[in-house]
Write a structure and sequence with these properties.
The chain is of the alpha+beta class. The protein is built from eleven helices and 15 strands. The strands form two sheets. Strands 7, 8, 9, 10, 11, 12, 13 and 14 form an eight-stranded mixed sheet that branches. The protein has a seven-stranded antiparallel sheet with strand order 2-1-6-5-3-4-15, sandwiched between helices. The protein is globular and about 70 Å long. It starts with a helix and ends in a 15-residue tail after the last strand.
Length: 359
Amino acid sequence: MENSSSYSDQKSDSLEAGNGSEFKVHVFSSSSELLEKLHEKWSSVKKQPYPAMYSSTFGGIILDPAMMVIPIDDHMVHRGHGVFDTAIILNGFLYELDAHLDRFLRSASNARISSPFPRSTLRSILVQLSAASQCKKGTLRYWLSAGPGDFLLSPAGCPTSAFYAVVIDEDFSQCKEGVKVVTSTVPMKAPQFATMKNVNYLPNVLSKMEAEEKGAFASIWVDEEGYIAEGPNVNVAFINHDKELLLPLFDKILSGCTAKRLLELASKLVEQGRLKDVRNTNLTVEEAKGAAEMMFVGSTLPVLPIISWDEQPVGDGKVGELTMALSDLLWDDMVAGPEVHRIPVPYVQSNPSISNYRG
């Protein structure tokens, strides 16, 4: 077997061949050679960003990042026939896992994907995966796919659906600085697809890129009737001058778990007299741009103040007091809320034999 340095030299020579010369593609002679190359990639990483993955294709939890792969003939890869969802790991607790898991299975049903396991087993796998990862702060992401089988359009040739999940070691904190947004020119997805969390995120990606190219954090979608919809992967909320918290209706957009929890928690500010009302409603662009405060709402934010829209200030152009009050409520709920929303992760002592895979 070639050593890694000779392969690197060959790769370099091939690239330098450049103009008009034939590019020679290396053929891996064995699985061990390929695995060595994959491990070489991860050997220079100081901290492993993905401490654990689950794959129903493998039938277990994977701690070696070099093996965190899915089959190329999986229909989620080449046809986009898959759905996903997420949950937050904060201080060793899974936040709002059950709400996200329920939405996950609704998305799967709408995408006509049957789970290979009952809900209770999916939940158990995700909790065990979180424990095996030893990650105390990060995100848990998971997918249901039509599964591997062939490269045809129909999933009829897929023997079984597939379930994948990964823990991402990710730092995040309460957002206190405001951001700029723009109105997206990228067409939003039709309601049938926008209301399920499927893996077809090309419009979302293009919308985010469009915003970044204009020096903004993200974009705002407006539906064909002229009503405010959502951000590229977050919900959007407004506080009008009557001190009402308003979120767009969920009939044409993704029903945000964090947004729903925010609506529940915001009732505390109504009780205190700081907010007059809390509700979902249709909002025109004119109404939205006339709001006193504006914010994104999403799992890892959980509330992100918006201070400028299409180069015009939102309200007085500063982070709103009520926005931060809502942010405090949601962050406190994530840190120390009721156990029905926070599942303790049953961590076990790390195995020294797998320490090399943890970075």
